[in-house]
Fold this protein.
Amino acid sequence: MNYDQLKTFLSIVETKNFNRTSELLFISQPTVTARIKELESEVGQPLFVRTNKFVELTAAGRQFLPYAAEMYRTMTDCRTAMKNYDYDGEIINISAPATCWYYGPMRRSIVKY
């Protein structure tokens, strides 16, 4: 299961509507359906009861919901942490005119460093 599948699952739980979820996530309704089918295949259980009038969680879907919410929260936190990762000096950017690099003392100093 992946981030997009979990996000789609949780959105459907909230909206109770595949079309509304597709609008909120800016994806097509067939993409919403495909993500849920892939997720249901991976979980091995149907997660929703679907009719023309409503969508609701199955018993397996209700059992899966807290795990999905926790996984999504963890993935979101991880993405945020990695975007904001501080390299702690692992990368050093040094800028100087090209003549310093090729002919001046900078070349010898950097090689030693």
Residues 61 and 113 are 58 Å apart (CA to CA).
